[in-house]
Predict the structure.
Amino acid sequence: MNPKVDIYLSRAKKWQDEFEKLRMIILDCQLTEEFKWGVPCYTFQKRNIVLIHGFKEYCAILFFKGALLKDTFGILIQQTENVQASRQVRFTNIGEIVELKHILIGYINEAIEIEKAGLEVNFKKNTEFIIPEEFQNKFDKIPSLKTAFEALTPGRQRAYILYFSAPKQSKTRESRVEKCTQQILNGKGLND
């Protein structure tokens, strides 16, 4: 048990009992307890397997390579359509956790086996994402923008493409491209 997780759990205003129950289930699977990204994270040979986190409406465990799990019981949730690797199992009360205990243990053990086997999630390449017309038009007007964009890391490129593609209205997409143009030219990511 990690003392930082003890502190985190003692300060939890919501989901405290659920967090404690999830912690015990996960620790029974012989994972190492760490504290990463401000939440309890459980690893196998220094590789992230699962973490516990809470939201307003639910608490959850998140499998880092959940997309590779078989999900025999259909309990895994992809948070958004853009999430490629991780999957959640969500809970709204401790009874749901108790009911799924043995299934969760099976999923955690499967996640450990995936890690032991060295399996990796096949991420979409940025070339598989469609560049919005408004962004392409800006490339045509400012060739150095395309060069600067292509010099960004794949993750930064993906973040911009998803951000620019999200709005339904062309006017909004155009506005987002305009606001980010200088940032891209400066070699910065969307959240830098």
